[in-house]
Task: inverse folding
């Protein structure tokens, strides 16, 4: 994977991940986009490997940190970054009721 932005589950760190990563990528896909009213600690990942576009959204969700969500996706390179991140966001949104 060529890029990764971390705001991992560290005490006192939540919702402080920058929306735009240092490399200019909008990293508010998946957990932050699908669960905007939730408290979360996230690690986002994106890049490419073996002719595939990789988009990951992972985190600990909820004030009590009682839910761990890991969404790992792999797409053909023909799928744009935008479409791949929307797919990750849709996947997390489908699970929203289980992590409230």
Result:
């Amino acid at each position: 994977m060529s890029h990764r932005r971390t705001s991992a589950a560290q005490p006192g760190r939540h919702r402080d991940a920058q929306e735009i990563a240092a490399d200019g990528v909008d990293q508010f896909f998946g957990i932050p986009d699908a669960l905007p009213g939730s408290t979360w600690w996230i690690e986002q990942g994106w890049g490419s490997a073996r002719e595939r576009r990789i988009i990951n959204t992972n985190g600990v969700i909820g004030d009590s940190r009682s839910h761990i969500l890991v969404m790992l996706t792999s797409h053909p390179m023909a799928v744009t970054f935008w479409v791949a991140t929307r797919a990750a966001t849709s996947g997390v949104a489908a699970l929203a009721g289980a992590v409230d």
Notes: The CA atoms of residues 62 and 74 lie 26 Å apart. The chain has one domain: 3-98. The radius of gyration is 13 Å.
